Amino acid sequence: MLGLNGIAMDAVTMAVVLLGCGFIGFLFAPLGLGGGLLFAPLLHYGLGWEIDGALLIVSLGLSATVAWGSGLRHRKEQHVSDERLKQSLLGALPGSIIGVLIVASLQGSFDIIFKALSLIFVTWAIIKTLRSKANTSQEEEAVNLLPLRIGVGAGGMLSSILAIGAGAIYVPVLRAYGGLASRKAIGTSLHIMMVVLPISILTHFVALDTSQVDVLSSNLLLILCMPIIVGIAANLGARFGIAKVSEQRIMNLFVLVLIVIGVRYVLDLTSRMF
Question: Which of 38, 123, 177, 179 could form a disulfide with 148 if both were Cys (CB 3.0 to 4.6 A apart)?
Fold first, then answer.
């Protein structure tokens, strides 16, 4: 198998990438996150792929695999609100399509702008989650539809632009404006991704150029192996998280992951400035 620069991809590189994919799937599945914030760097630095449409599609595909692997486990445990899911999709689906159109129109010049925008949203998500952690009620509260749909719409847009699942946006929005308890917000977030990410992937495919199609075809075997590993790991991670980890610890880990994401964006932005 050949890498992007025509250099033979050795078995060690493939093994490291596949193990990395499995670890990300296991870690992110219990948190309601797709893992795109780690999948994208893994593909970029591990395989040497350019940050373009091909990388976005594979990262989104792996995030969708996490969402399906973990989401089905959360549904089995009845940690999903179908009513909030339907309400949220009316915002998330248009947002994801708008995100693809933005990527296509800016042709790669959006990097700094949207990393800065993402840093703002991640900071907001941390604040919202910390403020709502005191709410331990398992009852669904009244929904505030307008901010719910605006929030998940922004998540859908960022999902398409940054190749992420956007659970860092969906979960706090579902808790704050959808009135859901933590585990149900996580399960519902995963189900939003289960619908939104495949639509985003298909829309991105339309905008691919010939060189990006070549990247996908030349790495086809690895691309087919990655979701298998991720799907198994995500299901195991969700099962472990639901059965073994308390809701409070889940939310503490969620905040920790958000902080790591925020630090990554700060480093990316400052490296461009200096």
Answer: 177
